[in-house]
Amino acid sequence: METLDWSNLGFGYRKTDYNVRIYYRNGKWGELETCSEETIPMHMAATCLHYGQECFEGLKAFRGKDGKIRIFRVDENAKRMQSTCRGILMAELPTEKFQEAICKVVKLNERFVPPYESGASLYIRPLLIGTGAQVGVHPANEYLFIVFVTPVGPYFKGGFATNPYVIIREYDRAAPLGTGCFKVGGNYAASLRANQKAHDLGYSCEFYLDSKEKKYIDEAGAANFFGIKNNTYITPKSTSILPSITNKSLMQLAKDMGIAVECRQIPEEELSTFEEAGACGTAAVISPIERIDDVENNKSYVIAKDGKPGPVCTKLYNKLRAIQYGDEPDVHNWITIVE
Ligand code: PLP
Ligand code: COI
């Protein structure tokens, strides 16, 4: 196994041994190929370069106490990538091929899966791009699917610790009938200015309101939002947010714990009523929210009054981690063990 300072890994790219690739040509997907090259030779008129025919996914593999490697909800990422492909007219990769590619790339890079209890995990990044040349605005006729992996630590400072966030009203990430619900690179390009502003102001990350009315909470730049009050888990319903697989899992775990779940519009002012809140996602896991400031409106919604993660966030976090690391039974069939 690789010797890295596992417990102090940040969230970034680190070279591993192999990536895997599948090409789509002549109307069909080819065979899975193993590659040790980090670069992609490409036509200069490829649609991913000009017209944003590009999407990606993010999921994680975990090493358990028993030494086994577990991948979390890979079928859900396959389905979301297919939905994104329908959204920007790219060739859809079948679920079985997606799963085969993920298992293969994890197995090939087994020595980079962090040890149990290091707090780190193996981040898996599938990427699908239009490689066929077009000069007019049309979908490509050739695509490339690649998966690389990289060992990572926490995305937000301190891991499971509270952080301050900020609502940015100046820039929108996505439009109500745009591509916000798909995992396309363009959404992240649209988020860069707001993200930079948030960081410049000393916050962990930016929050977006719905772009039409600027009234309801949408999500953060790289994570969904949930709030907790009166034994209820409340998360935004919006056409412009990414359907987070972590959020979907937390809603299930909350129900299992006897917590009510509401998926509905959340007016900004309601932030003042939450007992706890969190940002959730593959990279973020659960990142408990200390406060959300609306600087342009001179408001501050302090959620974690003692500065500590609350009891419901803590319980959900521990449960999710226990399933991911194999410490508790996988009753919902979320785990794929890499053989
Ligand atoms: N929202 C955005 C904009 C994201 O980039 C992510 C990360 O993937 C999420 C939410 C969380 O989604 P998931 O839980 O599927 O990782
Ligand atoms: C993820 O959580 O997988 C993400 O994609 C977040 C971010 C790194 C884009």
Give a quick rundown of the structure.
By secondary structure, this protein is an alpha+beta fold.
Supply the CATH architecture of the largest domain: Alpha-Beta Barrel
Helix count from the secondary structure assignment: 6
Q: Return the CATH class of the largest domain.
A: Alpha Beta
Strand content: 25-35%
What does this entry look like structurally?
With about 350 residues, the chain is α+β, with helices and mostly antiparallel strands. The protein has two domains: about 5-150, D-amino Acid Aminotransferase, Chain A, domain 1; about 165-325, Alpha-Beta Barrel (D-amino Acid Aminotransferase, Chain A, domain 2). About 20% of the residues lie in helices and about 30% in strands. The chain is built from six helices and 18 strands. The strands form two sheets. Strands 1, 2, 3, 4, 5, 6, 7, 8 and 18 form a nine-stranded antiparallel β-sheet that branches. Helix 2 packs across helix 3. The longest helix has 16 residues, at about 185-200. The model has no long low-confidence stretch (mean pLDDT about 95). 2-OXO-4-methylpentanoic acid binds next to loops.
